[in-house]
Amino acid sequence: VVVVFSPTHLQLSPCEQPRIGDYRLVKTLGKGTFAKVMLARHIVTDKEVAIKIIDKRHLKPQVLEKMYREVRILKMLDHPHILKLYEALDCEKALCLVLEYASGGGVLDCLAKKGRLQEEEARSIFRQIVSAVQYCHQKQVAHRDLKAENLLLDAQMNIKLADFGLIPA
């Protein structure tokens, strides 16, 4: 696994996979202009997580300040249908967000494989989305980027609302 930049939390030894904090990096899940998302495993518990590694070097100071404020807001959210932010690791070159891993992938990928949803499946998914958005609004948080690409699925095919449009991809 190659990391585009090397945050100080990244540790390498000749016989190990790359690490960030207490997490072993496994593979790249996705890439954007300012960030990449890696599948990782906790070294002690072996729990799978997704780590969003944001390259801070090309972000303006006001964008960084907004990003930190919004990370604090996301850390407060705790709902079964919102992707959980476990922790944020900050260093000079990167901000690493340790997130719940949605192993079911994206809703769009699921639809492409399965085709049309049965009415009851669609109703269940819609209820989960509404529940997550309602929870956010009760907490005075707006998602700001609600679209199919930001709807992920866990192993039990439950919705996980992701990417609040707060942090550049």
From TrEMBL:
> Which InterPro entries does the annotation name?
Kinase-like_dom_sf (IPR011009), Prot_kinase_dom (IPR000719), Protein_kinase_ATP_BS (IPR017441), Ser/Thr_kinase_AS (IPR008271)
Which SUPFAM superfamilies does the entry link to? Protein kinase-like (PK-like)
Q: What class of enzyme is it?
A: transferase
Residues bound to ATP are: 52
Please verify whether the record's keywords include DNA-binding: no
Q: Does the keyword Nucleotide-binding apply?
A: yes
* Molecular function terms, GO-annotated: ATP binding; tau-protein kinase activity
Question: What EC numbers are recorded for this enzyme?
Answer: 2.7.11.1
- What GO biological process terms are annotated to this protein in UniProt? intracellular signal transduction; microtubule cytoskeleton organization
Q: Its GO CC terms?
A: cytoplasm
Domain Protein kinase residues, every copy: 23-169
**What's its catalytic activity?**
L-seryl-[protein] + ATP = O-phospho-L-seryl-[protein] + ADP + H(+); L-threonyl-[protein] + ATP = O-phospho-L-threonyl-[protein] + ADP + H(+)
Family stated for the protein in its record: Belongs to the protein kinase superfamily.
What is the protein's given name?
non-specific serine/threonine protein kinase
Q: Which organism is it from?
A: Urocitellus parryii
